[in-house]
Amino acid sequence: MSGMSAASSLRVFLPVLLAVIMGVEQGHSLVCFSCTNQQSNFYCLKPTICSDSDNYCVTLSASAGIGNVVDFGYTLNKGCSPICPGPSINVGVASVGTHCCQSFLCNISAAGGGPRVSGPLLGLGLLLSLLSVLLLQLSP
């Protein structure tokens, strides 16, 4: 993908400038980046003025895969929230990362895709699976 065009840059930064000019301050309305089901943080740079009931900027990232061998996908969601969702979760081949913050456009980062299964761990799992199949074939 080539660099961001001038028109795209204006679409991203004009709302931020407008929010600053209108006097949106940290102590009043919270401003967060927002996006839904994106594969890149590049598409998650849209500023949103949160409602008065929102106290957090939230970034949720979900990924699945096996080390650098198999990639089942990655999705990124950002926005305003009245609460900070539960902690990050990693179940081996899938993970959900949660990041909450409470300041002006603080959710700029992608919060990471979370850890994935390492190569040695995958190798150990395959070895144990093969051993169990061999033992089943050898038993009467």
Automatic annotation (TrEMBL):
Gene (name only): LOC105992340
Keyword Signal (UniProt): yes
Organism classification: Eukaryota, Metazoa, Chordata, Craniata, Vertebrata
Stored PANTHER family: LYMPHOCYTE ANTIGEN 6E, UPAR/LY6 DOMAIN-CONTAINING PROTEIN
SUPFAM superfamilies xrefs: Snake toxin-like (SSF57302)
Cleaved signal peptide residues: 1-29
Location relative to the cell: Cell membrane
Nucleotidyltransferase listed as a keyword: no
Domain UPAR/Ly6: 30-120
One Gene Ontology CC term in the entry: plasma membrane
Main location per the UniProt record: membrane
Protein name per the record: Lymphocyte antigen 6E-like
Keywords annotated in UniProt: Cell membrane, Glycoprotein, Membrane, Signal
Organism encoding this protein: Dipodomys ordii
Gene Ontology MF term list: acetylcholine receptor inhibitor activity
